[in-house]
């Protein structure tokens, strides 16, 4: 299929029809290409979770349209196919585990799709390998760490052969190593398997790993581009309740003082190379 | 009101696994200290802090708060909970009253304090967390934003006027501005009233900026403890325990390795910028970097 995998056209969403002044999404236009890794950032209440829930028909636009691989999410006949193509991982790792054994949990999705048992077994095995959780297949999910639980949740989606993975603040309740596990997993799935990833997050360091960063403020997309382009707008981000990662903030101060360094530096290595060029 | 923990052991009963949550903790917290507790998930952080106000009782060992042994069945836990305020993870899940004023008043009202004093405390607590009592007070806590709900929950504990404030991941799930706001209120409260603060956090940048001393837990034990800067100087040991160091600390170490004499104990953006700019403006610093 040509064209973007997901296309939002002038999407407006109101949770309460009685309060037309309270708009969660306000005329959002956005396209996500197949194979892209997009990070969506924004303050609490900026509309990023509402946006995420539109990508797999959990919410439908009050106005405008969302198309996934050409299917209109408002079409009741398309909802199941849309949800199979776009899988969602949520914030709380404890709320998305349904089975008492890891591999049964991963099998839950394809079973509901009516996939044949022998195919399910093959898919579960493959999905657990992709998130590097094969050795935990017979474990009880509640004994896993938060990062491991989220990887199991991702495997459950992979077993349904999706086109796109949407993470709705899926790292926000994890510790730093759990966040790294999940982030490394989605980067690998994006690079190696060509899976499209939409990662909704508060953590700007995580957004730095994406191809494109989309910034939301009060229900609108107000800024988007490569992490480098977006992070040079430190002042603007701060006004929206966000902040650039510490390394980028430091690079900004040093660049402003005239040091030979890019204000949009993203990594420790980049700053070190700028300040101490190797001979 | 010092806190002394001696050989504290605790295991959750009911599970098939017999691994103890706390496996012999020794720790002293002095008056007015700002102590950070860090450790990977499941290291025992939340279990430890729930012992500080008697919510959990030790299986073995002692927890002495102001000289009172909380393991003693006759200890007056009500009095202790008045002195040691505990703010849980996602405290907004425990809001339940119809208005913000009622919710914040719930704790002090249970202390049998005269109503007019309760009212004063409620107003003061709301102002401390940056909420306008006249505007927010009459509203339902459930109609507020996530960040506001979090601040109402914190105000509920502050209205008890505790001498020790224990916070378990107070900024989790908030956006950067929300995090800065809530931690700023806590910092100011400590500066103004000299209370003791114990902060459990996963955010290394935050504990680096705020705390005087760090306690690192892993598998129910204290594996590292000391002044915050010294602890972050031990990046290898932290990594072995499933933790990182602030990216600024990592940068400083890397710059030193490449010959730039940045102090090893910088932890914040401002400190690093100051140190690098000083070195850069000194002739030797620039010469070295360009060599």
Supply database-style keywords.
heterodimer, A: 279 residues, Rossmann fold, six-stranded mixed sheet, 20% strand, B: alpha/beta, 19% strand
Characterization of this structure:
The complex is a heterodimer of chains A (279) and B (291). Chain A contains 11 helices and 10 strands. Chain A has 279 residues and is of the alpha/beta class. Chain A has one domain: Rossmann fold, CATH 3.40.50.300. The radius of gyration of chain A is 20 Å and the shape is globular. Chain B is an alpha/beta fold. Chain B has a domain at 246-291. In chain B, strand 4 and strand 5 (68-69) form a beta hairpin. The termini of chain B are far apart. The model of chain B has no long low-confidence stretch (mean pLDDT 89). Classes of the chains: A alpha/beta (279), B alpha/beta (291).
> Spans of chain A of 5+ residues with little confidence (pLDDT < 50)?
none
Number of helices of chain B: 13
Number of strands of chain B: 10
Helix-strand topology string of chain A: EEEHEEHEHHHEHEHEEHHHH
What is the CATH topology assignment of chain A? Rossmann fold
User: What is the mean predicted local confidence, pLDDT of chain A?
Assistant: 92
Order of helices and strands of chain B: EEEHEEHEHHHHEHEHEEHHHHH
Computed Rg of chain B: 21 Å
- What ranges of chain B have pLDDT less than 50 throughout 5 or more consecutive residues? none
Largest sheet of chain A: 6 strands, mixed
What general form of chain B does the structure show?
Answer: globular
Look at the structure and name the CATH superfamily of chain A: P-loop containing nucleotide triphosphate hydrolases
């Amino acid at each position: 299929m040509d064209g973007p995998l997901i296309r939002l056209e002038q999407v407006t969403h109101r949770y309460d029809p009685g309060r037309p002044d309270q708009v969660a999404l306000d005329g959002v236009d956005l396209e996500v290409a197949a194979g892209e890794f997009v990070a969506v950032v924004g303050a609490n209440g900026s509309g990023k979770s509402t946006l995420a829930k539109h990508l797999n028909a959990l919410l439908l636009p009050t106005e405008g349209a969302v198309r996934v691989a050409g299917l209109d999410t408002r079409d009741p006949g398309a909802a199941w196919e849309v949800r199979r193509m776009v899988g969602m991982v949520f914030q709380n790792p404890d709320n998305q585990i349904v089975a008492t054994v890891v591999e049964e949990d991963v099998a839950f999705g394809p079973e509901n799709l009516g996939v044949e048992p022998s195919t399910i077994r093959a898919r579960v095995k493959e999905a657990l390998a992709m998130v590097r959780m094969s050795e935990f297949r017979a474990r009880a999910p509640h004994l896993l760490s938060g990062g491991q639980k989220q990887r199991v949740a991702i495997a459950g989606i992979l077993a349904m052969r999706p086109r796109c993975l949407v993470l709705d603040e899926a790292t926000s309740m994890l510790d730093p190593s759990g966040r790294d596990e999940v982030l490394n997993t989605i980067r690998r799935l994006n690079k190696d398997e060509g899976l499209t990833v939409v990662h909704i997050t508060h953590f700007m360091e995580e957004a730095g790993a994406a191809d494109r960063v989309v910034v939301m403020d009060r229900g609108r997309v107000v800024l988007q581009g490569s992490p480098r382009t977006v992070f040079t707008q430190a002042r603007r981000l701060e006004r929206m309740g966000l902040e650039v990662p510490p390394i980028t903030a430091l690079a900004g101060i040093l660049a402003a003082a005239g040091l030979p360094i890019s204000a949009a530096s993203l990594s420790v290595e980049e700053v070190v190379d700028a300040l101490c060029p190797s001979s | 009101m010092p806190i002394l923990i001696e050989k504290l052991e605790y295991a959750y009963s009911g599970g098939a696994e017999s691994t103890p949550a706390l496996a012999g903790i020794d720790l002293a917290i002095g008056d007015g200290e700002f102590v950070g507790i860090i450790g990977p998930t499941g290291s025992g952080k939340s279990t430890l802090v729930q012992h500080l106000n008697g919510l959990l009782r030790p299986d073995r060992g002692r927890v002495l708060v102001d000289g009172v042994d909380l393991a003693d069945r006759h200890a007056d836990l009500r009095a202790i909970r008045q002195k040691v305020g505990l703010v849980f993870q996602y405290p907004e899940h425990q809001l339940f009253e119809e208005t913000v004023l009622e919710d914040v008043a719930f704790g002090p009202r249970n202390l049998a304090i005269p109503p007019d004093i309760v009212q004063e405390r409620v107003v003061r607590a709301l102002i401390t967390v940056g909420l306008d009592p006249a505007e927010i007070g009459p509203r339902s806590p459930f109609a507020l934003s996530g960040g506001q709900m979090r601040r109402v929950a914190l105000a509920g504990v502050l209205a008890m006027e505790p001498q020790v404030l224990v916070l378990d991941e107070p900024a989790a799930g908030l956006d950067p501005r929300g995090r800065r706001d809530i931690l700023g209120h806590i910092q100011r409260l400590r500066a103004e009233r000299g209370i003791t603060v114990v902060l459990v956090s996963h955010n290394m940048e935050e504990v680096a900026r705020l705390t005087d001393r760090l306690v690192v837990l892993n598998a129910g034990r204290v594996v590292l403890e000391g002044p915050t800067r010294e602890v972050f100087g031990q990046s290898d040991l932290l990594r072995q325990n499933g933790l990182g160091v602030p990216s600024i600390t990592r940068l400083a170490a890397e710059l030193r390795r490449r010959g730039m004499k940045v102090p090893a104990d910088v932890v914040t953006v401002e400190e690093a910028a100051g140190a690098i700019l000083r070195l850069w403006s000194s002739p030797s610093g620039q010469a070295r970097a360009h060599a």
